[in-house]
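Quick one before lunch.
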Amino acid sequence: MHARSGKDSPALVVARILLGCLAAGAALAVAELVRAVLHLRVHPVAAVGEEVVERTPGALAELAIDLVGTWDKPLLLGGIVAVVALVGALAAVLAARSAVWPAVLVGALGVLGTLAALARPGAASADALPVVAGTLAWLLALALLLSPLHTARPSEEPGDAAAEGPGSGGSTRRTVLVRAGAVAAAGLVAAAVGRSVSRAREVVEATRRLVRLPATRGTPPPGADLLRDLREVGAQPWRTPADDFYRIDTALVVPTIDPEQWQLRIHGLVEREIVLGYDDLATMELTQAWITLCCVSNPVGGDLVGNAWWSGVRVADLLARAGVRPDADAVLQTSQDGWTCATPLTALTDDRNALVALAMNGEPLPLEHGFPARMVVPGLFGYVSATKWLVDLEVTRFAEVEAYWTERGWAEEGPVRTMSRIDVPRSGTDLPAGPVTIAGVAWAQHTGIDRVEVRLDGGPWVAARLGAVPTGPGRDDTWVQWRAEVDAPAGDHLVTVRATDRSGSTQTSVRRDVVPDGATGWHEVDFSTS
Ligand SMILES: Nc1nc2c(c(=O)[nH]1)N[C@H]1C(S)=C(S)[C@@H](COP(=O)(O)O)O[C@H]1N2
Ligand SMILES: [Mo]
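Model of the MTE complex:
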């Protein structure tokens, strides 16, 4: 740590105040950028404002509204920004005494902002990220802007016109100005990018709300929702609502695509290349089906799996229009943001419901799940089949192509693995001794689940009761809910599940990690009874 005189000239104090405000402004810009990119609802400044409103005694609030009328909100938000600037200025001035001051002041404001953001109704832990990023950016900017002042000897203060020349106050002043320019530019860029990301999102959200598709919401087969009574204790609904559907992709910013501009190109080893617009697909015959989608990165017992009613156009029909050449064995899918995956041609041309989906649970795809169009292929992991924001299908040969995840060591073929999961009871639960309900889901898309068994404390396997699945083609493409009852005397217990699919194969007990082609092993949950 540098020894600091603590006695700044008036000019230097003014410089510190300006630099402190600049760092605070950059912090707000970074916070807003992070909020926009992650599409978080909670604005940190607004969250603090709402906290202030909630904590202001009613009489005082009325008095304030009497005084300022409808200016109350802009004044409140402006006041918060002013406080942020003030703290920034103070931190920069006090930094002359000790580097602890900026950390304490900025850190304290960061903690307050975080608490306010997390206190908003429906806030998730991610809503703390903008404040955290803003706080870090703030401290970084302060260090960058003030360090030239601290390394210069007191006689070489930038305000000291007598000392010019190499390594003197003149060069310190230049360094400070250059850095201030850089911080200001970075702040402006962050603010501009944040704004344009928000704007693009708003525009496409508005367009999406106007889209009308002949898609239905789908009705779960009678008896599929076997675990309704267990929702409170951890069971999932048979249909996964879009908001709760797991999301996996490499997109830092969700692509915002105007369906009017969107095109799907089908080319490669085909008789004739075709290009389709959104309306072309929306007016074709829609195929609708229940399909469970899961991720290769889902660990045993994990929740990267969901079941929805998808509406779209059969890929087989589109490929037939283009006319696939006989030497092809793969289709390379590309998204608007450049992500790729290669899918076995047979999975797209056999009788399964491989879809270019436009709707999920009866609504146009949510932006996060691929609006305006995505692929869904029953029986394959998402990383080899489920391209969101789809723009290109190239009929090709596996020998010719590499795709995003296969280049990174994941298997070329990605058939889903037969899997079962215990949702009830939750691990670590304490229950009354006696009969205990064990329940969960099992899936083996496009093969189907034949039976699910549970065992308590390594005892004999007991068959679970299975919920219904759809009938007809596609009956094997969804997960199935199951439940069983075991008798658990007082003590600690371990319950294990395993599924057998309709091809007759039972899940192996061998525990394997998700790389390169999906986890294996039995899911186990511990609980106690008393
Ligand atoms: N464009 C794009 N599509 C993608 C991905 C991606 O990173 N980018 N990830 C895939 C993976 S690994 C999975 S598991 C599924 C997840 O789909 P979901 O987010 O709608 O659940 O999308 C697939 N489609
Ligand atoms: Mo995935």
